[in-house]
Amino acid sequence: MFKVITPKVENGIWLVRHLRTASGDWNVSLIKNMFIENDANAILSIPCSLNQRDDSLCWHYTTDENYNMKSGYKLGMSLNIKESTSETRKTGFNWKGIRNLNLPTKIKIFLWTSLREWLPTQVNLARRNISVGCLCPVCCNSFETTVHALWGCSRLKKVRNMYGFLHGVNFANSLCFQDFFSSCTQNLGKKELELLCVVLWRVWFLRNKLVQGVGQRGLENVVPWSEEFLEEFMVVNEKWCVGLGMVVRDRFGAVKACSTQRIEARYSVSVAEALAILRGISFAIYCGYDHLIIESDALGVVNMINSGIEISADIGVIIEDIKCLLQNITDARVKYVSRKANVVAHSLSKLALTLDVSYFWLDSFPLAVERCI
């Protein structure tokens, strides 16, 4: 799956160091000229380290790239999605349509699980002889079928009204989810269907938070959150580039400097977040600061940086570079903040996608920053 299939050219350049620029980044034009598209894309998705690091074997399907049963299960489920395309004639359901949706694999797996009625709703658990009540834990008024949990619950009325595309589509609890989803595919365009899938995935996430006792705040923001999530996913996957935004504030919160960088690659979200932290620290050092509090809304990345564990995943090279930079700073710590506290950086990352080169501002700032200050 990950083997280079480009035919070897005699006297060609095949050493990794020859494929990188003087700054340490990939030489994009050279790689695209040397390798076929699939190989070039795979190479450009690998983050580059500032330091030399030995290669190591790792499991590609987890964040830390160590195998666990959950990741094996998810991989098996994703393979089942592909195999299920052959079942179209038997069931009449267009499984291939799900595979062709422009969505993250985790959402496709969620859809496949829901369509199989394997989602652990109260009714589905009871069918498996698990001793639970069948009533919905959110509204406590109706049986919690898959359709009810994801769309028909009375607590989801605001979500249905905000979405607006499915007026007239029957979502009665008596329907199985496959019938409901088939109706949606017939009534919606591809982009509307993709947004609906993200909405359903987000609703299930918030439902689980309630069952776990965390609460179910955020239902009113499901549709706007889903639109932003899908927009960011589309930008990264269609343009094959990542936008980074960094902002430097003083101890009073006033913006002192900011920067944008556009990188031509398709990094995972966590790698992009780690890279933003790395470039942000470098930018702060360039601006002359040596007492830093680095803030990020990527909790997983923050935990990796603050842990003493060596990460063998591709993100590990970035984490190690961050730790090396931090050792050269007089006083620095990395902390997690909510997304709401990181609006300026996110605005800059979006701005970076519209720019051809990197920019930095020290006194006057772009409109995207001024609006958020």
- Count of structural domains: 2
Alpha-beta classification: mainly alpha
Number of helices: 17
Strand order of the largest sheet: 1-2-5
* Order of H and E elements: HHHHHHHHHHHHEEHEHHEHEH
Distance between the termini: 46 Å
Shape: globular
Number of strands: 5
Rounded Rg:
23 Å
Mean pLDDT: 83
Give helix % range: 40-55%
Stretches with pLDDT under 50, minimum 5 residues:
85-91
Summarize the main sheet.
Answer: 3 strands, antiparallel
Beta-strand residue fraction: 5-15%
Description:
By secondary structure, the chain is mostly helical. The protein has helices spanning 28-34, 37-44, 69-83, 88-91, 95-99, 105-115, 122-127, 146-152, 157-163, 177-187, 190-211, 222-239, 269-286, 299-306, 315-327, 343-352, 367-370, and strands at residues 242-249, 255-263, 291-296, 331-336, 359-361. It folds into 2 domains: 101-234, no CATH class; 240-370, Nucleotidyltransferase, domain 5, CATH 3.30.420. The protein contains 17 helices and 5 strands. A hairpin with a 5-residue loop joins strand 1 (242-249) and strand 2. The radius of gyration is 23 Å and the shape is globular. The chain starts with 27 loop residues before the first helix and ends with a helix. 27% of the residues are buried. The model is unreliable at 85-91 (pLDDT under 50). Pfam families: RVT_3, zf-RVT.
